[in-house]
Every structure is written in structure tokens, then in C-alpha cells.
Amino acid sequence: MGYKWDLSVVVRFLPVLLQGAALTIQLTCIAVGMGILIGTFVGIGRVSKNKLLYTLSSIYVTFIRGTPMLVQLYLVYFGLPAYFGTIPPRMAAIITLSVNSGAYVAEIVRAGIQSIDRGQLEAARSLGMTYSQAMRYVLIPQTFKRIIPPLGNEFIALLKDSSIVSVIALEELVRKGSMIAGRTFRAFEIWTAVALLFLCMTLPITQLVNYAERWLKQND
Amino acid sequence: MIKVVDLQKRFGTLRVLNGITNEVREGEVVCVIGPSGSGKSTFLRCLNLLEIPDGGQIYFDGVEITDLKKVDINQIRAEMGMVFQRFNLFPHMNVVENICLAPLKVRKCSREEAEARAYDLLRKVGLQEKALAYPDTLSGGQQQRVAIARALAMQPKVMLFDEPTSALDPEMIKEVLDVMKELAKEGLTMVVVTHEMGFAREVADRVLFMDEGLIIEENTPDQLFNSPQHERTKLFLSKIL
């Protein structure tokens, strides 16, 4: 009961924590960007009638979603060097987060495409469009609007999960927090500050997604 | 123009079409009537290969289109316009974009040419003031008229109508049927699956009555409606007229 809060520790180390937060945001943005790129193609593969495309994309999604991200990170950081030589932690982190995010985005894209009324594809095909033209001009544009909310959730999830890369000594927010807490013995204050900083990052994204959702509805 | 020989289609173990043989001549308006589940829509959807038949042949302008290895399915569909029960306009595009998409991407028309034709067609269906509107701001009848314009923009040789007024509120049926009558008058070849007996009677050159995946009876509307030959036709007509 005798614990006295010392907020001066937080104030003193806030710039360091913010540095970590900046790296967290940076990693997440790159990974989600890559994830959308990967996920769009893999998601289209998941609804493809082409057996090979379907099988490959399904294996990828199943593997990534069925294994812990920590294991994936170790595979990339400690495993891949067996073939490719040492991989810098930052590179390993970006690869892991992107490949991981890609699988989840792929499922979002797949569900988005499948949620669109079958009549849309039929109408496009009845006009003489090929399957890929129908995808590109009719289905995918409609999918984008629908998947913005789940994509926002994916961004938030990845922002939080990116803390996993602290185990390969990448100094993002959690790693910074753990370093400072270890040095100052002010764990309660520091981890509270870290938690609040995460909230400060996730809340605006939630707001942004809500706003985008309303805006898209108006412009539908 | 379209010749169908012994057309068959199954969905799993359910036999939907049991050997349809018929011919649609150029400039002819053929209406297909029959109870629900009789295979009318499936028959229509086989004509442009939205459903792939399990047996029989379809010839379009003398070319066997059911021989999927030899024909370009997209090229054939481009020559056959289709209008659906539920309109199926593209909701992310305005009316003109809906109409221009296929001419631009499939026919590789210039934008000027495609838009000029789109506005012509909109005038024809009485909707030029809705050119920049989005589909969900239009009534059902207006959406269906846009869908007709969209199909016509490809300048098809034949138009297939799949119960075009079945999803409409009663007060909007007439505006759509009027457009279709106009097209018939211009000599467009049309195959119309419909429950609108008045339309069939007035516009069709020939009416096909289908039941259980077969054409039970076909005749001029006058003959078919006034003196049906088959018991099943009589029964069906007695229920709806």
C-alpha cells in the first residue's frame, strides 16, 4: 500500500517512449501497406477458379493464421539466415509483419468479394466482360468500400501485435518501455504510460474508420 | 438467329431442362411463359451461357456456341444483351458510367463515342436527366430502364429479358414494358421470360409455354391464349388469366 507514484519518471523518459512509438507506427504502416498489396492478390486467388492459385493462396493463409506470429518472426530472423545470410532485425520485422498481415487482409478481401451479390458478376459477364475485367471494374471497386472497416481493425490489431518484434531487440514502444522500467524500477508508471500511448494511437484510427464509413455511405 | 437443339441442364440430380428444341428468327419477339420452376429462366440463361448446358447444342448465327473450346464466350455474350429481374446495375458507378463501361472495355470504343451513344439510349428510355445519378437514387422502374440501355449500348443482335418486371412495384411495370414494346416495334430480336400475359399477347410473335423443363406448346399469342391445345397449358392459363 505504501507505493508512491512518481510521474517525473514518465515525464523524463517521454521523449524516449515517443521515439519507440514512432517506430511502432512506422513498422505498422509499412506492414499494413504491404499486407494490403499481398492480401489483395491472395484474396483474389482465394476466390479463383484456377486450382493452382487457389491452393497456393489457401496454403499461405492457413499457415500464417494457424501459427503464432512469434514463431514466424523467429523463422524469419533466426531461420532464413541459413539461406540468405544475416537479416537485419528491422528487415526481419517488416517481412514478418507484412507477410502476417497479408494473410489476414487476404481473408478480408475474400469475404469482401464474396459478399457482393452474384448478380453483379453475371451482369458484367453478360455484357461480354472477361472474368478479370469483371473483377477489376465491377467487383473489386465495390469490395474496397466494404472492407474499409475490417481493414481498420486489422491496422489496430497489427499496431498492437507489432510489439512482438521487441524480442529481436527492435526498439519500438514496448522495448523502450521495458528498458526504462528495468533501469528506473518504476514499472507501474512506465507501463501505464506505454498503455496510454498505445491508446492514443489506436483511438484516432477507430475514429478515422468510423468517419470513412460514414463518408462512403453518403457517397454510395 | 438462335437455334437450340435438345438442350439439357441439371443442377445436381435435379433435371431442369429435359431437351429443348426451338429456333428464334431474326426480328422475332418470343415470350416464354410457364409456372415457376418450369425452367424458363434456366433456358434463357443457357442461351448466353451464364449456365453451361449439360447436353444439346445452341447455334448463334450458325456457329455452335456450346462447343466451348472453339468459341470465345465473351465475344458471344457481347452480341447478346441481357436484362435481369433484379436490374444488377453497378452501384459504384453513375448511370452513364454503367452504360459506357462495357462499350469502353469490351468494344474498345472511344469515350466520346460511348458517351454519345449512352445519352442517345437514355433519351430513348426517357431518363436523360438521370445521366449522372447513382443507381440507388433511382426507382426500380428507372433502374430497369437503365439496365435496358446498358445492354443496348453493346448494340446486341438479340436481347434476353429474364422476368424484367417481376421485381417491380405495380405502378412501375408499365414504363418498363413500354420501352420493351418500343424495341419490339423497331424490329429488335427479343426473347422474354415473363409473367406479363398482356405484354406477351400484345407484343410477342410467338409464345412458348414451358413446364418441367420442356416446351409443352408454342403458338402465336392469339392461338395460345385463346385456344390452348394442351391440358397443362389450359390449367396454367386458367389459374392466371
Which features would summarize this protein structure in a list?
heterodimer; A: 220 residues; mainly alpha; 9 helices; 82% helix; 0% strand; flat; B: 241 residues; alpha/beta; four-stranded antiparallel beta sheet; globular
Describe this protein's structure.
- The complex is a heterodimer of chains A (220) and B (241).
- By secondary structure, chain A is mainly alpha-helical.
- Helix content of chain A is 82%, strand content 0%.
- Chain A contains 9 helices and no strands.
- In chain A, helix 2 crosses helix 5 and helix 3 crosses helix 5.
- Chain B is an alpha/beta fold.
- In chain B, 38% of the residues lie in helices and 25% in strands.
- Chain B contains 9 helices and 10 strands.
- A 6-stranded mixed beta sheet of chain B has the order 6-7-8-3-9-10, with helices on both faces. Chain B has a 4-stranded antiparallel beta sheet with strand order 2-1-4-5, covered by helices on one side.
- The model of chain B has no long low-confidence stretch (mean pLDDT 95).
- At the A-B interface, helix 6 and helix 7 of A face helix 2, strand 6, helix 3 and helix 5 of B.
Name the helicity range of chain B.
25-40%
Strand content of chain B: 15-25%
| Stretches with pLDDT under 50, minimum 5 residues of chain B | none
Radius of gyration of chain B using CA atoms only: 18 Å
The assembly state of the depicted protein chains is heterodimer
Short description:
The complex is a heterodimer of chains A (220) and B (241). With 220 residues, chain A is mostly helical. Chain A is built from 9 helices and no strands.
Task: Draw up the topology in text.
The complex is a heterodimer of chains A (220) and B (241).
Chain A: H1 7-46, H2 51-66, H3 69-79, H4 81-84, H5 89-114, H6 118-126, H7 131-161, H8 173-184, H9 187-218
Helix pairs in contact in A: 1-2, 1-5, 1-7, 1-8, 1-9, 2-5, 3-5, 5-7, 6-7, 7-9, 8-9
Chain B: E1 2-11, E2 14-24, E3 29-33, H1 40-47, E4 55-60, E5 63-64, H2 73-78, E6 80-83, H3 95-105, H4 111-124, H5 140-152, E7 158-162, H6 170-185, E8 189-193, H7 197-203, E9 206-211, E10 214-219, H8 221-226, H9 231-240
Helix pairs in contact in B: 3-4, 3-5, 4-5, 5-6
